[in-house]
Write a structure and sequence with these properties.
- The complex is a heterodimer.
- By secondary structure, chain A is an alpha/beta fold.
- Chain A starts with a strand and ends in an 8-residue tail after the last helix.
- In chain A, helix 1 runs parallel beside helix 2.
- Chain A is 39% helix and 21% strand.
- Chain B is of the alpha/beta class.
- A 7-stranded mixed sheet of chain B has the order 2-1-3-4-6-5-7, sandwiched between helices.
- In chain B, helix 3 packs across helix 4.
- The radius of gyration of chain B is 17 Å and the shape is globular.
- The termini of chain B are far apart.
- The chains are: A alpha/beta, B alpha/beta.
- Chains A and B meet through helix 3, helix 4 and strand 11 of A and strand 1, strand 2, helix 2 and helix 4 of B.
Chain lengths: 372, 242
């Protein structure tokens, strides 16, 4: 039995980063992720990493750019309004193909919004968010343990693909405490053990990192390609990488793994609440399943499509702490072949267990509206 | 026969894209010469700006990193902290360092980051076609101040070097100019000293370099040099500020 400790989701992410060998963290205070920056301030320097409280979110993400360019594993964390400010830097990181981990513990928006949990930055995270054609890998933990495991995995994926990886949580996950097993050499993803740290991430192994040009030709880290045809060639290379990621990194938990008449699709904390509602209905013999996307980009559309094909006549109900964002990816995956209905609240409202049960009840009675 | 003047090792033997009479070529060379003399080429990680010198990494022959407009000192901060043995410098224009990047500049200076900053002040935005810069002189015509810079609408030229000199963590600040050979030699000394300060782990050093932009000053190269000598230095006095 592995030793367990009690941490908040925010602290678990910070702990995972340190265990993953994070060499530089830069952040700026914003609620509800403040436990993360505080944990890093206290523990990262003891592990030999560099902690910087930046003067702004812009500076923080560009410090991550610099640290990553110099070959260190680098991370920043924030919450929704801060994530908007980081978009310029994320676009540059994507263009320069730097490995980085970026945490967004979402809160209500738009604008200053409020500090309650929300999932309304899904589009921003999965569609790029900044300027240019690019994608971030996006992982959505649903427990404190998974916040730890997916952050460990995020550092490996970042190095493997030379790409930024976003950990997309929400204020509830960030603030809540659960027991956590640390120092694991693997992540549990979808019930499968995924070995970690198989990647040698020392700067000397990165043949593009800026280390000073001792005994080699100088290197340049950049996202600027002015010569005719140069940028298009670079962008086509990015697209090939994204296609590779889409083929290999779709992650989804089919929670019950059996046939169903209705599947609820929910991610993160929303999936935890939906699970309670579905558990109730299943105990009364209702055929309801739960699909929980773990990777939001790449969206596990291929897996959802296969599940739909194996369950003729099935209906899908998407539940989000937003007014309908991931539901569009579910629709795209299903291509109009199965009905898709939506339940969502945001701005401080969270669909309750009772609301979800009523929602599923309607779906089971065939009372669904196509969401569009 | 002994060679007493040659192409610096740290500067690639290529043609630059700079306009005739531009100061960037001189500044690039001075930095390259200083690096060669101090024998630190293989320790350098330079941060190139957004602006006319965006492709400085095509001219220098050492490791270089790009930064988003204004963010060079945030990038430099992390590189230097992650690699304390590296010699890290930023090369930034007036718009980059004193307008869009003012926050990064002030806070890197205030933290006393042990990096060197080469700040090219030519009182105008060059790359985008000659707009108002924070350092544009009163009365100076640019494409966005067609009647000349006026206090009422645009405020005063920003003396950011003097502002930074107030910060206790700043080790050294000097303003130099490229308008005549004697001044160029002084500029070289200041650049060299800013690098030495870093090699000796002393702290944040900034060299502000007044540099001609004949194209967007609408002057011939010699007129531009004279304008620095006769006009610009009155707003931006030369010498050691801290």
């Amino acid at each position: 039995m592995r030793k367990r400790i009690l941490l908040t989701g925010n602290e678990a992410i910070a702990r995972a980063a340190i265990d993953a060998g994070c060499g530089c963290y830069a952040g700026y205070p914003i609620t509800p992720q403040n436990e993360l920056i505080a944990y890093m301030a206290q523990h990262l320097p003891q592990s030999g990493g560099v902690f910087i409280q930046a003067e702004s979110e812009l500076a923080a993400i560009n410090m991550v750019f610099g640290a990553a360019a110099a070959g260190a594993r680098a991370m920043t964390s924030t919450s929704s309004p801060g994530m908007s400010l980081k978009q310029e830097g994320i676009s540059y990181i994507a263009g320069a193909e730097l490995p980085a981990v970026i945490v967004n513990i979402m809160r209500g928006g738009p604008g200053l919004g409020n500090i309650w949990p929300a999932q309304s930055d899904y589009f921003q995270a999965t569609r790029g968010g900044g300027h240019g054609d690019y994608h971030s890998l996006v992982l959505a933990p649903a427990s404190v343990q998974e916040a730890y495991d997916l952050t460990r995995l995020a550092f490996d994926l970042a190095d493997q693909y030379r790409n930024q990886v976003i950990i997309l949580g929400d204020g509830m996950l960030g603030q809540m405490m659960e027991p956590l097993a640390v120092n694991s050499r693997w992540s549990i993803v979808n019930g499968q053990r995924k070995e970690l740290s198989t990647i040698d991430h020392r700067p000397s192994t990165k043949n593009w990192a800026l280390t000073g040009c001792v005994g080699r030709k100088p290197r340049v880290v950049k996202s600027f390609f002015m010569h005719e045809g140069e940028l298009e060639k670079h962008n086509l290379g990015l697209q090939k990488k994204y296609a590779r990621i889409c083929g290999k990194q779709q992650m989804l938990e089919d929670v019950y793994g059996d046939k169903a008449k209705v599947f609820v699709v929910a991610y993160g904390i929303m999936a935890r609440i939906a699970k309670a509602a579905i558990g109730n209905l299943r105990s009364r013999g209702q055929k309801v399943g739960l699909l929980r996307p773990i990777s939001l980009w790449p969206f596990p559309g291929d897996i959802i499509r296969r599940i739909a094909a194996g369950n003729p006549g099935v209906a899908f109900g998407v539940v989000e702490m937003s007014y309908g964002q991931m539901v569009q990816d579910v629709q795209l995956a299903l291509g109009g072949k199965s009905p898709v209905t939506f339940l969502g609240r945001s701005g401080g409202g969270i669909p309750s267990q009772a609301e979800i049960e009523r929602f599923i009840g309607k779906l089971l009675n065939g009372e669904w509206l196509n969401y569009d | 026969m002994t060679k007493i003047y040659t192409h610096p090792r740290s500067l690639r033997p290529v043609t630059t894209h700079y306009c005739p009479g531009c100061g960037h070529g001189i500044a690039h060379r001075l930095i390259a010469e200083a690096i060669d003399e101090l024998k630190v080429r293989e320790r350098i990680i330079a941060i190139a700006p957004v602006g006319c010198a965006v492709i400085a990494y095509d001219y220098w022959d050492f490791d270089c990193c790009e930064a988003a407009h204004g963010r060079a000192l945030a990038v430099a901060t992390a590189i230097k902290r992650v690699r304390p043995q590296a010699i890290v410098f930023t090369y930034q224009g007036d718009g980059d360092l004193a307008a869009i990047g003012t926050n990064e500049t002030i806070h890197a200076a205030n933290r006393g980051e042990k990096v060197s900053v080469f700040f090219i002040n030519n009182a105008v935005y060059g790359m985008t076609g000659g707009q108002l810069a924070p350092t544009t002189l009163l009365g100076q015509k640019t494409v966005t101040t067609p009647q000349g810079r006026e206090i009422k609408s645009h405020g005063y030229p920003l003396r950011i070097s003097e502002m930074l000199a107030l910060l206790p963590a700043v080790y050294s600040i000097e303003r130099v100019s490229l308008h005549e050979p004697a001044q160029i030699l002084k500029a070289k000394q200041a650049i060299r000293q800013a690098l030495v300060n870093q090699i000796e782990d002393r702290g944040f050093s900034l060299v502000e370099i007044l540099s001609p932009c004949p194209t967007y000053w609408a002057m011939k190269p010699q007129e531009a040099m004279n304008w620095i000598r006769d006009v610009v230095v009155k707003e931006f006095p030369l010498g050691k500020i801290k």
